[in-house]
Specification:
heterotrimer; A mainly alpha; B alpha/beta; C mainly alpha; B: Rossmann fold; C: 78% helix
């Protein structure tokens, strides 16, 4: 399981150029878009937005494992793994842990830059957020397990993945405060925003950075519970996908 | 953009600026689109005029190369090739992977540009008149890929339309090709769902929806089963009967033996030898093995007499009444052998002749153990 | 020019671009989501720009047009990676016609995807007139042509290293979008950012597009300058792209 985990994780960080570019993209969001919008709004959007960039980066890294699993299914890598002496559970957890590590490492890099760019965010409670990132990344990757299960391959996987990513990011407090959403959007939609794990994550990070007391137990438990629930859904989803491949040779 | 920033104070008369930009843009753009690429780096305005008339007749050369070279950095993929391909014949390029066969084919199909030298294809220079070359050449690539979402019918129809087959003719030739290449059942399946053999047959079938003057096949039967191989070979030979010149690259000796009027052996970017199959086999000294079985035990004098025959490399007794002789040209040796034995009153029970294989020919000319090992 | 061959190649590629209806539906979903959700929320927060909702909507059209044009240029590189390019290079059409077919494809896909969202923005903003529609479509075509030419020109890098190409294109695209007036007017930027944006042709393209739609001109760059820059982008990248395709690009797999 650890070997599969290492191989899977190495794919995400395989090319220094690409990682450097991705980091630069996220930083440009923070330092360009965030700063410019700050001058266009009546509050310090830059400080507000920086944690959002961290969470969206972590989200992208966590979702990437689903992409790798999908490509593995279509290119025969998963079939190769299944021919090895590894159980379905071990293979499932290898991918979920890879998502956890990938999201934490990549999100951690962006977080480190955010702490330098936005000193107001520097708080000891940020350290408590890091294990939450790990669990949350595993949970978020569970979403892609469901996509792999139901998309049955082809373009539908990519369309679903992009759609889910757009909707989850757009209907969260990553980009805008909940008060603004309450003022503009219908209440059922606001309800979705509030249960969105990204909203919970970014609010936890903002709370860890600026609130007093920093990162309440309630917030931490809420994020943890949502993450564990998603992770379990993801584990079931992945296991089902791999079992189907072992039986039928393919998902659909 | 720094230029634009500097220009801002000077862009006063906007009407003239707009008009000038439009005029310059339109003129230069149309100039670029006219004519053909040229080796000097400018589009030639004389597109369409060949430097020599297209070759005609069976004795002319379909392809002539002079010092044709292709390098990638320090790697020499094709090294100073000067050769000819006779019109109306099938030339087979034989050699292992990486020997330069595909590079040569891609150069004469103008997919690649040579680093040095040049070639004439049906009288057109590949460097100065690549467009004309592409009009007379069609190529079936080694690995069929690229059109994942399209269906075989669409792919063949597109290919036919690009070579000027239109309307009802196009539909007919496409349907015929689909049937002949056993793709009719898969005609509306996406390319990505085809098996390796189906994809390869589709790749070959492209060259049969029109009749190219020069047809190039790069390993036409790789991934194809035995029945499919024979079918493709017969189709390739039918192209020759219709007047096309054919070049086939392969590392399968059976394929070479079945198709070739002439074989060129490639290794490490060079053409080592080029000749007919018969001559190549005859070039192996002592390559023909003749197994003689006698009606009665053989004595030493008989063996010595066999050894002294012209063309004998060696003769050994392998049993009391069996001799194995290695000779250079069995077709010349056998009559003189039978005459000699008849004169001595010695009766033969059977004669079996084994010719050298192309592997033997390859080993002779390259030093490698077989075509596949390189 | 062999117009028949060009038309055949264009039709062949165009069919593939629309083969998957899922992507087309997703594209319009993405536009609608970003426009109505992100746009309305950000308009609620932005205080320095009147009618930021439609300002953002127009920028979104340019952004998506940029993305489609980038896709068309990158597709050319992917065709090399997938083995399709060498087949196209072996066909009896000139390199110039091959380049034009890629441009036509990019512009056609751009228009078919962007005209509905564009009409929506125009209609909702009350600015819909035939003249606004035609001029804004022309500006979009010019921007698309320039971006496609730029991406094809950069494709020569991919034949050395596909990863470096991907990194460069991603970074360049991000910089072109972020340091432009796609999302915010140049007057809202701090001096350093504004200075960088003034060197970005997408800045001029976005403002020219808004002017064609009939937006408030006080926030927009001088139209003659913007037109000159957009045309220069078009012509410049066309030349460079054509040169590379004619003299540099070969049928090798991108590495």
């Amino acid at each position: 399981m650890l070997r599969v985990l290492r191989v899977d994780l190495s794919y995400f960080f395989r090319t220094k150029w690409l990682i450097a570019t991705l980091v630069a993209l996220n930083l440009s969001d923070m330092l360009v878009v965030g700063l410019i919008y700050s001058h266009m709004m009546s509050f310090d959007y830059f400080v507000f937005f920086a944690p959002g960039v961290v969470v969206s980066a972590m989200f992208a890294a966590a979702l990437d494992v689903g992409r790798r699993v999908y490509l593995g299914l279509t290119e025969g890598v998963t079939q190769y793994y299944l021919s090895l002496p590894i159980s379905l559970n071990a293979l499932t957890w290898a991918h979920l842990l890879s998502a956890g590590f990938g999201g934490t490492i990549y999100g951690g890099i962006i977080l480190a830059f955010a702490l330098v760019a936005v000193p107001q965010l520097a708080s000891p409670a940020i350290l408590l957020f890091i294990p939450l990132m790990f669990v949350l990344s595993m949970g978020l990757s569970g979403i892609t397990a469901v996509l792999n299960l139901f998309s049955k391959g082809g373009d539908r996987y990519w369309v679903f993945a992009e759609g889910v990513q757009t909707a989850l990011l757009g209907l969260s407090t990553v980009f805008y405060p909940i008060q603004t959403m309450q003022a503009v959007l219908p209440s059922p939609v606001v309800g979705v925003v509030q249960v969105n794990p990204l909203s919970q994550a970014v609010d936890a990070l903002r709370e860890a950075a600026v609130s007093s007391p920093a990162l309440t137990l309630g917030v931490g438990l809420q994020v943890g519970a949502t993450s564990v629930l998603l992770m379990l859904v993801g584990a079931v989803g992945y296991r089902h996908v791999f079992a189907k491949v072992r039986e039928d040779g393919k998902v659909s | 953009m720094a230029v634009v920033g500097c220009m801002r104070p000077f862009l006063v008369d906007s009407g003239k600026v707009r008009a000038t930009y439009s005029l310059v843009a339109n003129t230069l753009f149309l100039w670029f689109l006219r004519g053909e690429e040229s080796g000097s780096g400018r589009m030639s305005m004389d597109a369409g005029r060949g430097t020599s008339p297209p070759s005609e007749g069976g004795t002319a050369n379909a392809v002539e190369t002079k010092g044709l070279t292709k390098t990638y950095g320090k790697t020499v993929a094709l090294d100073n090739l000067s050769t000819t391909v006779e019109e109306g014949k099938i030339l087979v390029l034989l050699g292992p992977n990486g020997s330069g066969k595909t590079t040569f084919l891609h150069l004469i199909a103008t997919v690649l540009k040579p680093t040095g030298g040049t070639a004439l294809v049906m009288g057109y220079d590949i460097v100065r008149e690549p467009q004309k070359v592409r009009e007379v050449v069609a190529i079936s690539f080694q690995d069929p890929r690229g059109f994942w979402r399209h269906k075989p019918r669409h792919i063949l129809s597109f290919h036919a339309s690009m070579y000027g087959v239109s309307g009802i003719d196009r539909e007919r030739v496409v349907d015929d090709a689909l049937r002949e290449f056993q793709l009719w059942e898969s005609r509306d399946k996406r390319f990505m769902t085809l098996s390796g053999g189906q994809a390869k047959r589709l790749e070959v079938a492209k060259l049969f929806v029109h009749i190219p003057k020069l047809a190039i096949f790069d390993e036409p039967t790789a991934m194809v089963d035995l029945d499919g191989k024979r079918m493709i070979w017969d189709k390739i030979r039918s192209l020759k009967e219709k007047g096309s010149t054919v070049i086939v690259a392969t590392n399968e000796v059976r394929e070479a033996e079945y198709l070739a009027d002439r074989i060129s052996i490639f290794t490490r970017g060079r053409e080592v030898v080029s000749d007919t199959l018969v001559n190549l086999k005859d070039s192996v000294r002592g390559g023909d093995v003749v197994n003689l079985e006698f009606a009665s035990p053989v004595d030493k004098e008989t063996i010595d007499a066999i050894r002294e025959l012209p063309g004998t490399e060696d003769a050994v007794l392998i049993d009391t009444a069996k001799v194995r002789a290695r000779v250079s040209r069995s077709e010349d040796w056998l009559p003189s052998m039978t005459s000699a034995l008849y004169a001595r009153g010695i009766r033969l029970a059977s004669i079996r002749v084994e010719e050298p294989s192309l592997d033997d020919v390859f080993m002779l000319h390259t030093g490698s153990t077989s075509v596949g090992s390189g | 020019m062999n117009t028949k061959a060009l038309a055949s190649l264009f039709a062949f590629d165009f069919w593939e671009a629309f083969d998957s209806i899922s992507w087309v539906v997703y594209f319009w979903f993405y536009f609608a989501f970003q426009f109505f959700v992100y746009g309305s929320l950000m308009a609620n927060l932005v205080v320095t720009v009147n009618n930021y909702f439609f300002y953002y909507g127009a920028g979104l059209v340019v952004l998506l047009s940029f993305n489609v044009a980038s896709w068309a240029g990158r597709r050319f590189v992917e065709s090399a990676h997938e083995g399709r390019l060498r087949y196209l290079l072996s066909l009896p059409i000139g390199r110039g016609e091959l380049f034009v077919s890629q441009l036509m494809l990019g512009v056609a896909v751009n228009l078919t995807r962007m005209v509905p969202p564009l009409v929506l923005v125009l209609w909702l903003s009350g600015l819909f007139t035939p003249w606004a529609l035609v001029t804004s479509v022309l500006v979009l075509c010019a921007i698309a042509t320039g971006i496609i030419g730029l991406m094809v020109s950069l494709s020569v890098i991919a034949f050395r290293s596909f990863d470096i190409y991907s990194a460069i294109v991603a970074a360049l695209s991000a910089l072109l979008i972020r340091f432009s007036t796609i999302n915010y007017p140049i007057s809202s930027m701090t001096a350093p950012y504004a200075a960088v944006s003034e060197f970005n042709p997408v800045t001029y393209g976005s403002d020219l597009f808004r002017r064609a739609l009939g937006f408030n001109t006080s926030l927009l760059i001088d139209p003659y300058l913007a037109t000159a820059v957009v045309v220069a982008l078009c012509v410049g990248t066309l030349f460079v792209g054509m040169f590379f395709l004619s003299h540099v690009v070969e049928g090798v797999r991108s590495s």
